[in-house]
User: What shape does this take?
Amino acid sequence: MADDDYDYLFKIVIIGDSGTGKSCLLSRFTSDEFSLESKSTIGVEFATKSMDIGDHKIKAQIWDTSGQERYRAITGAYYRGAVGALLVYDITRQSSFENVDHWLKELREHADNNITLMLVGNKSDLAESGRQVSVDAAKEYASDSEMLFFETSALDSSNVDVAFRTVFERVYEVVPKAVAQDAEGAAGPGQNTIKLKPPMSAAEDAHSEKSQGGGCC
Ligand code: GTP
Ligand code: MG
Assistant: This one.
């Protein structure tokens, strides 16, 4: 579809410790690419993907930044306008699961209260040889914190599409109603479009429709 031919634009953010596979998940979902040769993301990248949900065309705008403090962009701008978040840990690294607490706290400080949250345990392809975080522990944590939950593998693609799609479907269930109420009485095409603030200029510099510059995959 043409760039502006959509009913809703939803911004979601990916957060989590460095090396958990955030950038690989993004590139797997938006361009079906994966790389084992990874560099930590510098600044902010984002990519978009179009999808149909219900009777509407959704433009998914997914933002990615480094889990490393020194490479991160301004936190407020990163979270502003986000309607969903993926909190990613690595199932082979217990510390990345423990740090989900930290990422949740940051979200609660900077993001909208109604943001849709999904806990994502990535690298499920390594489960047999290297699992450190059990599915049960992750499910319990997700349920206590009112998060959706999936285990994924950016490497072998398992659950990547369904995880992202589930977030957008949940956002779609929650967000448009509020917007529709605000826009009551308005008519004509595009009235239900949620125009989010454009990415900050630092991101824009590196941006193309699929901005992957400087990232891993
Ligand atoms: P930062 O940008 O530093 O926060 O890291 P990141 O979370 O974006 O991690 P990145 O996507 O760069 O991936 C880190 C490393 O994990 C890379 O070597 C990837 O190839 C690898 N990786 C990512 N996803 C998977 C996966 O699903 N399975 C396996 N086996 N490796 C993965
Ligand atoms: Mg990255």
